Amino acid sequence: MADSSSSLPSLFEKISYKRCFLRSVDLTMLGLLFSLLLYRILHMSQNDNVWVVAFLCESFFTFIWLLITCIKWTPAEHKPYPDRLDERVHELPSVDMFVTTADPVREPPILVVNTVLSLLAVNYPANKLACYVSDDGCSPLTYFSLKEACNFAKIWVPFCKKYNVRVRAPFRYFLNSLDAKEDSEFSRDWEMTKREYEKLSGKVEDATRDWDADDDFEAFSNTKPNDHSTIVKVVWENKGGVGDEKELPHFVYVSREKRPNYLHHYKAGAMNFLVSDFSHISFFFHLVYFLNSINHCAFVQYPQDFYDSNCEELVVLQSVRVSGLMTNAPYMLNVDCDMYVNEADVVRQAMCVFLQKPMNPNHCAFVQFPQDFYDSNADEFIILQSYLGRGIAGIQGPIFTGSGCFHTRKVMYGLSIDDLDDSGSLSSVATKRMLAEGSLAREFGSSKEIVKSVVEALQGKSNPQQTITNSIEIAKEVGNCHYEYQTSWGKTIGWLYDSMADDVNTSIGIHSRGWTSSYISPDPPAFLGCMPPMGPVAMVQWQRWGTGMLEVFFNKQSPLMGLFHQKMRFRQRLAYISISMWGLRSIPELFYCLLPAYCLLHNSALFPKGLCLGIIVTLLGMHSLYTLWEFMRVGFSVQSWYVSQSIWRIKATSCWLFSILDITLKLLGISKVVLIVTQKTIPESRSGSGDEPPQHIDHGLSPSSGKFEIDGSLYFLPGTFIVLVNLAAIAGYWVGLQSWSCKHGGGGSGLAEACICVLVVIIFYPFLMGLFKKGKYGIPLSTLSKAVFLTALFVVFSVRK
């Protein structure tokens, strides 16, 4: 209960940023883009078809920049004051924390263990917390690791709270050694805790099947990742806790039932289980498949364990159901298994927004913290959050990004803003409708216990049960594969299905019902995670994101739908349109990378001297300086800016190209989209430590190292093809190919196109270097041969006879 006295200071404030100068820059660039389009239209009849292609590409770029300008117009964020909570709130609400994992090989158990330990040690009353780990791989190794982690947590949590340790993930805290001369109680406790963590790490990394003799592992016998019954294990129960610093929160392991040939809906399905239980391509690229068939290889794949077409959402939904039966906390935090808590007060910071009186005047449905990373592979992602994230936060609120987000349970249960009265309580009309006979059972399933927990959640009550072990059997029931059939789970309730980007899908559903969201970006970052190293693994992840966004763009939750009858603000809808269209950028970006080379070879002018060339040069200069300023303003280097620009072009012309292919085949009913679990690693570096600010770690495959791992998969064919085509055009230009064409009636192209070709080659620098390197940083002969063949065809079709 919060004190609503108006004389007390606010628990948070909304900070709006003024950006008059940047607005003028955005508008100037937008004006230049429209001027370029107008110039193309006025001179279209005097040029060949290449201008039509250029006009279409530039029209798409103009539309995207228009959307970005609208999104960034009014940036904002919320600043919490957690130190004021104690004087304003007499009793803190309960919070259920969800961690999802799916593969003990690609998501090492020691990584999951560190994330869980950081959650168990947050600065919040332990008797008000419950941590649920949803293991979609049904791995006894993961369960064994969590049991061992629980034993270590009895040492780690009191140590963190006694000495107010800031970084509460042991693998990061113990990176640096302690001063050998220091002899104090802290140093002795530090050494002892480190030894215990090293023992834990050794047990997890060297674990064998010794647990088979343990009766506690009987449930894992004869199980397969995609074929097993529901498993619910209470690893630790906080019995009669009063929030003492030595206490541990409830700790529960969950693995939902999975059967072959059943849809499991990705991460969202498992999250929904937790919440309620415990609570196309151009002609040249079509030839690629023919070339691959010659080599008897359609695609170079890595050993894969992957979710089926919809299992990730189910991971989330089933988490919601389990927690609803066991603890039914009014607020829920979900984090990825590799995103540890870096700010111990993160829960208190989120509560500052939810508990502000009068009753949540902005009707905040969730609080999103930005995703930051302790490695150096995510500079561009951080920039996007810093500018676009704050821009969206200044409209109707940030977009749910899948991790580091606090949700309100009643909103996840499908509550609309219209269901509340002026005081923020459930209105009488909504109460009558929801409590009508059979209504909740039709929406939430046949379990009476689930219906009861839903009623309590909508009324703002936590689960009154004192012993969560009493709910284990009921929790297993709602984890059944058949439970969600003919219910609203994944449709209007919980995390929404029908896309790999279940977070964006769910976010659209929430904002469409009139709710807002809040963006908190503390310093130090609240959560830190790892990004896959630059190369094949990162390409898989980028394709997955692009495919998921396109699924959102074309499914029932599309931001294009409900334009006039939903409660989402217009600019918020533009933000969703911009994000969900990311994958569509691949085609215009690919063509625009090839057009200058085509014009050099074809001897036609893409950027004629005069006004058109002036506009292009001004746009390139302004955009480069603008984006460079954005990077340097948040502390990144010029090299980081250059590498990020390069990576953006690579993902746009390669990964997202295959995202379009994925979504096309799905829409035509030819194939289904699968979610591949990307490899996650813990870097063995000593670049940060305990209470020092987190520093970026070089994997040896990071942008700062200038290395880019390449293999024989098709992801690397478009980039190689682009580099070879532009090199061929440059070579032809300088050896006199243009002069030969002019003698046969060419129109005359010039230096501008050649300079743009050089710029394209510089942007695709990793592929240029790959031509001269061997091993994992060099382009494989199979990829190079295909690219050379496509380049030869391109040159033949481009050169004017």
UniProtKB/TrEMBL annotation:
<feature type="binding site">
    <location>
        <position position="267"/>
    </location>
    <ligand>
        <name>Mn(2+)</name>
    </ligand>
</feature>
<feature type="binding site">
    <location>
        <position position="107"/>
    </location>
    <ligand>
        <name>UDP-alpha-D-glucose</name>
    </ligand>
</feature>
<feature type="active site">
    <location>
        <position position="503"/>
    </location>
</feature>
<feature type="transmembrane region" description="Helical">
    <location>
        <begin position="714"/>
        <end position="735"/>
    </location>
</feature>
<dbReference type="InterPro" id="IPR029044">
    <property type="entry name" value="Nucleotide-diphossugar_trans"/>
</dbReference>
<dbReference type="GO" id="GO:0016020">
    <property type="term" value="C:membrane"/>
</dbReference>
<dbReference type="GO" id="GO:0012505">
    <property type="term" value="C:endomembrane system"/>
</dbReference>
<keyword id="KW-0328">Glycosyltransferase</keyword>
<feature type="binding site">
    <location>
        <position position="336"/>
    </location>
    <ligand>
        <name>Mn(2+)</name>
    </ligand>
</feature>
<feature type="transmembrane region" description="Helical">
    <location>
        <begin position="51"/>
        <end position="71"/>
    </location>
</feature>
<keyword id="KW-0812">Transmembrane</keyword>
<keyword id="KW-0808">Transferase</keyword>
<dbReference type="GO" id="GO:0016760">
    <property type="term" value="F:cellulose synthase (UDP-forming) activity"/>
</dbReference>
<protein>
    <recommendedName>
        <fullName>Glycosyltransferase 2-like domain-containing protein</fullName>
    </recommendedName>
</protein>
<dbReference type="InterPro" id="IPR005150">
    <property type="entry name" value="Cellulose_synth"/>
</dbReference>
<feature type="transmembrane region" description="Helical">
    <location>
        <begin position="20"/>
        <end position="39"/>
    </location>
</feature>
<keyword id="KW-1133">Transmembrane helix</keyword>
<feature type="transmembrane region" description="Helical">
    <location>
        <begin position="779"/>
        <end position="799"/>
    </location>
</feature>
<feature type="transmembrane region" description="Helical">
    <location>
        <begin position="747"/>
        <end position="767"/>
    </location>
</feature>
<dbReference type="GO" id="GO:0071555">
    <property type="term" value="P:cell wall organization"/>
</dbReference>
<keyword id="KW-0472">Membrane</keyword>
<dbReference type="Pfam" id="PF03552">
    <property type="entry name" value="Cellulose_synt"/>
</dbReference>
<keyword id="KW-0961">Cell wall biogenesis/degradation</keyword>
<dbReference type="GO" id="GO:0030244">
    <property type="term" value="P:cellulose biosynthetic process"/>
</dbReference>
<feature type="active site">
    <location>
        <position position="136"/>
    </location>
</feature>
<feature type="binding site">
    <location>
        <position position="136"/>
    </location>
    <ligand>
        <name>UDP-alpha-D-glucose</name>
    </ligand>
</feature>
